[in-house]
């Protein structure tokens, strides 16, 4: 990345952030504004599609799973309104199938959460065909598993029995995992 962020970003610095995690969305918006982007935020598929239709941005960061649907719907709306928009898809689920689907509908990159503002900026501004460098501190397999369990637990409205059923896990095993601190 270049030293002057405004040169790297270009004249159109509009950025749409779509994520239903309000705290993450605010934190990322502040960090991206500090990097020279003009940020608009949306917390749902409907709000993301509306923002894409009203003012198609030059850049976008879209969460894959939103409360009211799939973030790929926002990616498709962005592509329809502005084919040159550079879109990065974020998700708590790092699966090859969803990465392929994101790229097929027009995303330029796919990042697993938790991604920091530097990762997002590098993904948005990378122009080369070379793969980006691996993260310095990738999540451990235990941490990825824990994050997945937490996400399913939240989606099941913090119902231990339903979460255990969906994860094909014994309820007591799940309770022990949920009682522990997150792994590093």
From TrEMBL:
SMART domains: REC (SM00448). The keyword Transcription regulation applies. It comes from the Bacteria. The keyword Thylakoid does not apply. InterPro entries: ActR_PrrA_rreg, Bact_response_regulator, CheY-like_superfamily, Sig_transdc_resp-reg_receiver. SUPFAM superfamilies: CheY-like. Transmembrane segments: none annotated. GO terms for molecular function: DNA binding. Keywords: Activator, DNA-binding, Phosphoprotein, Transcription, Transcription regulation, Two-component regulatory system. One of its GO terms (biological process) is phosphorelay signal transduction system. Residues 14-128 form the Response regulatory domain. The modification 4-aspartylphosphate is found at residue 63. Member of the two-component regulatory system RegB/RegA. Involved in transactivating anaerobic expression of the photosynthetic apparatus. It is a transcriptional regulator that is responsible for activating expression of the puf, puh, and puc operons in response to a decrease in oxygen tension. NCBIfam families: ActR_PrrA_rreg. This is Photosynthetic apparatus regulatory protein RegA.
